[in-house]
Structures are given as structure tokens and as C-alpha cells.
Amino acid sequence: MKPNKFNGKFKELESIIKKYNNFLLIIHPGPDADALGSSFSLQKYIESLPDNKKVEIYSIDEPSSNLNKLFPKKLLTTSLNLQNKDVIIILDRGDVYFKLGINKKISSLKNPPKKIINIDHHRKTRIAGALNIRTITASSTSEIIFRFLEYTQFAINSSIAQFLLNGIWFDTGGFKHNSTSPEILEIAGTLMRNGASIYKINKILSSNKSLAVLKLWGVAINRTHINKKTGMAVSYITKEDLKKYKVSIKDVDPAKLSELLNTVSETKFSLVLTERDDNKIKASLRSEEYKKVDVSKIAQSFKGGGHKLASGFEIEGRLEQTKDGWVIK
Q1: Where on the phi/psi map is residue 196: left (φ > 0), alpha (ψ -120 to 50), or beta?
Q2: Spacing of C-alpha 177 from chain mean position
Q3: How many CB atoms within 10 Å of residue 324?
């Protein structure tokens, strides 16, 4: 992402933020470090301005326990309140505007928000009529927010620097993915000079798995099947597995497990399925550039989304064992 790519839209965003006082930031279900990092840093920026601006951050789900060690959970609400909001900003997944029915809820309000803003780096998440600040060339939504704060010449303090680095670190896979450009490393260096710690992120997100979670991962790895025709490595975790190992679905981290399965040499991509309490199954897909599989296309065929190398989707059903193996019912 070029530093001046969005200067025109950044100018408009800055003007909107200065003009209005009541904001609602909305992030996607199962919030990850990028959604949280971009929203908390933008919240801190808005609240630093004059006129006593109010900013709420909404997610339908609470973050996982390890993310709660990196972000202030108490500043996040799981109760959606659209009343008396001047501006709604969707961060990191513009499609939740429709999937959560935000658009329909807004249309029923007597005093709807004056502005809708969509800040994202995913494909096909444009919101018609909104101020769309989107690019798939950004490593993360946190990178876009960093560029915005850079444009406004805002002094990034240590807490905001940590929020942004958390998001960038997560969406670049700890600076291992193809999205890790020289510019991203320069941004990381700037954030570290402003007080952020990579050691802190590594310790919490990479080296903080409980023995119970690792045992459950072992079960999932042991049952992994590789489809020789497609090159897919697939595994699953059931609700019974969670109950047996006394593990919360929030702490399983299916995305990380999918990344691990994707390292198997003969695979082209990986798929991890996890059962949820609401009769739904969530899927996490991962691949690598050299494997030449665009997993976002697979996710889109199931009305999901994401990136070329990291995507997901959700379907109705449950996992059931038959004489021919496990199937989705």
C-alpha cells in the first residue's frame, strides 16, 4: 500500500471525524487482532480530539482469552446500540454490514447515522453509498489506520503503537506471509520506536497455548486427512472434543491450527472445521503463494470471504460420524 494512496479519502475521513461527536465502530464476529487493533487505535485517535467525542466498539462476539491480554476488553461491547450515532465505521470486514443486518436496522431508525464509513483490506466488501477506504494491497486494516494517523500527523503513543503492531503482526502471520513488504517492516520499526513490543505479541499469541489446547490440537492433527486429488489437508473439532478437553472454542484458535496443517509438504491448502453451539460449523482455510490455490474462491462459494491465502466461511449443520467417515449433516 503506497503511503499517499488514500490521501483524498483520508482528508474526507478526518473532516467527518472532526465534524461529528458520536461514533460506533463495528468489527466482525470472532474478532481477531487486526479487527481489534484497527478499532482500538482509531477509537483512541477520535477520543483525543476536542468536543468530548464518544466512541463505542461493537462485536457480536467477545475476543479470545489471549487477545484479552493485548486489548482492553472492557472497552468493547457485545450489545448493539445504533441510537443517536452520527457516524458508523465498519472495520476489517465490510460485509458484516449486511451479514449482521446492520443496513436493515439502520433503515428502521428515525434518526439514522449521517455517515457510513468502511475501512477494509478484504475483497468484495464495498458498501454502496459509504465512504469506502479499501485496498487488498494493504497487509491489514491496522496498516490503513496507521497510514491515516500518519496523514493527520497524529502523535502515536505506546498504547496505540501496540494496538497497531498487534494487528499488523497477526495479519502478516508474524511477518511470515507474502504481505510482509519492506514498507511493513518500516512501519513495524516505527511502532516499536513508539513503544510497541513484538516480544509481547509473540509471547501471548504464539507461545501461550494451554496443555489442554495442545492435546486437542494433537487429536485434530491425528485425524487429518489429505485428499491426494485436490491437495487439501482437512481436519475437524467437534463440540464433544471441546467438552472432553474442557477447552473453549475461543481458545482453540482454528486459524493457527489450519496454518499448521498447511505446512504439510504434500498439501496445497488446509481446511479446519469447528462445530459451534448454534448448529453451525465454521471453516478456516489457509494456503501459500507458491501453492497457487486461492482459498478465497473456495470460501466465496460458501458465502464466506477473506484473502487469497487466508479465508473462512460458516455453514449450518453438525459433524456426524458414519461408517464411511465424518460427514456434515
Answers
A1: beta
A2: 15
A3: 6
Torsion angle defined by CA atoms of residues 201, 69, 23 and 161, in that order, rounded to the nearest 10 degrees: -30
Walk me through the domains of the chain, giving residue ranges and CATH numbers.
7-204 (3.90.1640.10), 211-328 (3.10.310.30)
Helix (H) or strand (E) holding 234, with range, is: strand 232-237
Q: Which three cell numbers stand for residue 166?
A: 498487534
Q: Distance between CA 73 and CA 76 in Å, rounded? A: 5
Q: Position 4: which residue type?
A: N
Burial 154-181 (b: 16+ CB within 10 A, else e): bebeeebbbbbbbbbbbbbbeeebebbe
Pairing of strands 269-275, 280-287: antiparallel
pLDDT exceeding 90 applies to what percent of the chain? 74
- DSSP for residue 287: E
Cell matching residue 326: 465424518
How many Cα atoms within 13 Å fall on the side-chain side of residue 144?
27
Interatomic CA distance for residues 294 and 287, integer angstroms? 8
pTM: 0.85
* pLDDT 10s digits, 157-175: 999 999 999 999 999 989 9
Profile the chain (329 residues) by mean pLDDT over runs of 10 residues: 85 98 95 96 97 96 90 94 96 91 94 96 91 94 98 97 97 87 96 96 83 93 93 94 89 88 93 90 92 92 86 88 71
Question: Residue 218 corresponds to which amino acid?
Answer: G
| Percent of the chain clearing pLDDT 70 (strictly above) | 98
pLDDT tens track for 6-17: 999 999 999 999
- The CA angle 6-12-16, to the nearest 5 degrees, is 140
Residue 270 is placed in which grid cell?
488446509
Q: What pLDDT score was predicted for residue 83?
A: 94
Separation CA 312–CA 302 (nearest Å) = 9
Q: For residue range 217-266, what is the model confidence (pLDDT) as tens digits? A: 999 999 999 999 999 999 999 999 999 999 988 788 888 899 999 999 88
